[in-house]
């Protein structure tokens, strides 16, 4: 049985167009987290590159790779050497013309446990992901690791209570959300505080409703890879405990590694004292599969 006390590592970085530099920064962050006692380390969404989805340009498909593939093999070796679980978000090339936004899950002995393909794909100004990514087809999943049972979703998935619930119903004690989210500079003054609060609050709600830890590593820094205003990523990676309390939060604009202790026994305690899973009226929820109830 895994130890109830687990140290969770989050790596928050700014990114550039230099893939090798981004990879080196991520590896430094992983090593720092491990040196500080992290057992499970999660990287931000699409950590190898700038957030290219700000524009639609076929050249960015060249960034994709198979999963498992070269980067996962490198990370498997690193996980084995450090004895840690790794969650890494990658641009997956599945087949010609078929690409996914995918998270790889690697156990502490270097075993590739599996992958999660992002299910909800946004199409908003500067978040033009539908051009690049096919919606995931593996469903919502959880994996037993050396340090607990974890679930993984990706960024836009974090706004959907159904995703968190279905992941938690598979026994996930921690749900990781690798993330790339920030402000449009022209909107920051008017909407910035509200947008960030919404993002953090909805995930705290997932933690409360499902009685689990929620972990969201986000990127930081300003990126405008092909001109324009770009996106100012708001950093502030965080960990919420099963009661929805933020127990650690990173800075807004600095590369940073968080290492946070989680007591997985508190998942059972929370779910016992706040028995939302027990009291679900599953026989009454059939309409949840409808687009809208007219």
Question: What do you see in this structure?
Answer:
The radius of gyration is 18 Å and the shape is globular. A hairpin with a 2-residue loop joins strand 6 (123-124) and strand 7. The chain has 294 residues and is of the alpha+beta class. The chain contains five helices and 17 strands. The chain has one domain: Carbon-nitrogen hydrolase (Nitrilase/N-carbamoyl-D-aminoacid amidohydrolase, 4-Layer Sandwich), CATH 3.60.110.10. Strands 5-4-3-2-1-17 form a six-stranded mixed β-sheet. It has a six-stranded mixed β-sheet with strand order 8-9-10-12-15-16, covered by helices on one side. The chain has a three-stranded antiparallel β-sheet with strand order 11-14-13.
